[in-house]
Amino acid sequence: MGHSDEITLTGLTVFGRHGVFAHERRDGQEFVVDVTMRLDMRRAAETDDVADTVHYGEIAERIAAVIGGRPVALIETLAARIADEVLAEPLIHSVRVTVHKPHAPIALAFDDVAVTIERRRPSDEAAA
């Protein structure tokens, strides 16, 4: 359907205060987000005009505002909020969001913990 084109933003690192524990909300930590946005880029490729595509710098700012905004307990909730924000852009048909929490309170040595969700515009559900 022409929706297989993708724009991917990886490693967006933003300070937030999300977590189950009071000290996570108090002290905060960095969260890292990867986002893959699916949209039809044929018109943009023809016109070479940013108005015909998604301005990924603006999307990054909107994602950063979600991460830096109201705290939530779970990174699952944070990922869903980011997906909703990205899908507010009408050109985007679906999105895959990964939220990394590399400084999660785990009492063992680890490199990263992350959740990944995929969401699509409700009007595209039937086409899936």
UniProtKB/TrEMBL annotation:
CDD domains: DHNA_DHNTPE. It is an enzyme of class 4 (lyase). GO terms for cellular component: cytoplasm. Keywords: Folate biosynthesis, Lyase. Pathway: Cofactor biosynthesis; tetrahydrofolate biosynthesis; 2-amino-4-hydroxy-6-hydroxymethyl-7,8-dihydropteridine diphosphate from 7,8-dihydroneopterin triphosphate: step 3/4. The keyword Metal-binding does not apply. It catalyses: 7,8-dihydroneopterin = 6-hydroxymethyl-7,8-dihydropterin + glycolaldehyde. Transmembrane segments: none annotated. The keyword Lyase applies. Its EC number is 4.1.2.25. GO terms for biological process: folic acid biosynthetic process; tetrahydrofolate biosynthetic process. It holds the Pfam family FolB. Residues 7-119 form the Dihydroneopterin aldolase/epimerase domain. One of its GO terms (molecular function) is dihydroneopterin aldolase activity. PANTHER family: DIHYDRONEOPTERIN ALDOLASE 1-RELATED. Belongs to the DHNA family. Catalyzes the conversion of 7,8-dihydroneopterin to 6-hydroxymethyl-7,8-dihydropterin. This is 7,8-dihydroneopterin aldolase. It comes from Microbacterium thalassium.
